[in-house]
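Batch 3, record 17
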Amino acid sequence: MDELLDILSELHPDVNFEEEDALIDDEILDSFDIVTLVTEIGERMDVTIGAKDITPENFNSADALYDLIERIREEEG
Amino acid sequence: MYFTSYEFIGFLLITLILYYVVPKKAPKWPVLLIMSLLFYALNGVGALAFIIGTAAVMFFGALGLERLQEEQQDKIRENGELTKEEKKEIRKRYGFKKNLLITVCVAINVGALAFVKIGSLIAVLGISYYTLRAIGYLVDVNRKTVKAERNFFKFLLYISFFPVVIQGPLTDYGELTKSLYENHDLSWDNVGRGLLRVVWGFFKKLVIADRVFVAVSAIVENETSYRGVWVLAGMMLYTLELYADFTGGIDITIGMSEMLGIKVQENFDRPFFSTSLKEYWRRWHITMAAWFKTYLFYPVSVCPPMKKLLKFTRKHFGERVGKRIPVYLASAIVWFTTGLWHGFAANYVTWAMLHFAILMISEELEPAYASFHNKCKWASSRIYRVFMSLRTVFIVSLLMQFDIFKSVPLFFTRLVSLFGFGGQGLTAGFEAMGLALRDWIILGVGAVLMLAVSLLKGDGFFRDKLWNKPWILRYGAFAVLFTAILLLGMYGVGYDAGQFIYTRF
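Prediction for the assembled complex:
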């Protein structure tokens, strides 16, 4: 989770990702941010997020995103 | 059959009566299917064959996909002792099969679209829309966000549902089918609200859009005499026309669906209030932009070749620049496709690529904007916001000129002439546009009315707020709009109300 929060804060240092739960709905993350996130997560956490996983529900909060990462790890495991 | 024809009013009325006379116990959706197919057939039997054929490909494609998914799951589950590598191998094998199936189905549909658009041998109404809708469905089944439909006729209704088939919104399968197949009982609330929106849509189309059309056509036909500042007038007028035409058409679509108890996704959120082009594309033709983002931009951005490219660009161009190249490339691909989707022609592709260029430049300038907004407090004022919105409208209107002039060199000639003098005098110019003073007043009032409705929208639709007011106000509004359409609408003997602009795409 810490690694994920690091990645997120590097992207938007001004956002409190531990609190925010409408990252997509409130348009804090745009589509370019999402692509950057997916790439960074892939490289630094070794988890491949596919296009099918890119939904508002999965990206609205750091928690939801972390759940997604865990789910993918489980599936791939 | 146009939405704006007398025949269509009759058609809609028959649909409503049939839909509501079917007894509650029987399924009502077949009425919608029959009427949708009839709507299509009235536009040509060839078109009907086309839509049924392409729908069948997607229907069976989706069933095939689900079968492959099940097989893959069984293979992994049955054999509990598979190693990680073996499971990976199975996933890879089935992934390949599924992708192949999707590619074949999509290729057939896109091929059909290209055939119709380039060959122009047969006119198939709304093919651009239903092709995208069908592709979205197939991808959703593959992503397991929706289950494949087992009843071909139900699926055919989703693809051909007549209110949305010709100009959108590009309804999502999961969203539309929430209310498309279930029975809806007659409710005066639904019918009344829906009708009010339909009437507002017809007002926008017949009173405003088709009236501005006269002036816009005059400018296009005599473009040499409408130079200089007239270019600006042309931009404003076409923007007004397209806005009234497209949002009006969607109002009619959503309104008549509401009359049937069916909820169709919204396609606009007051787009001209956007403070940037990026924001505008979240608020104008929302469903199309969302489609391209979900089914093209993300898949292209995160696909393996893009990841390889990223590694390469990072190595050769450094972290900062290297990171952007793949994402910009993906975006360029999306815009290029968006251009082609509007029409296989240079003007649409240039239109799209200029959007791309402006969006990328704004993206690069974002830090500069942010520091400007931090330093200059007045930049957060209301007036500055209005300025930003006007700037967005200017950019959008300028690019829209590609739509009416259709020629890339002509666009740039006109753009240059905007900064020079020339063109005809004020009185002569207005006279040659073919509208009387009365028409200009009607247009002015109409534009103010649309602006007022947008400003009053706030959290919910103005229409819904109005609906909760005393009956005299809502029926008053209905009566005023209806009378305005009858007296001021551009239709009648010797005059054909025009087809909606977005049905061309």
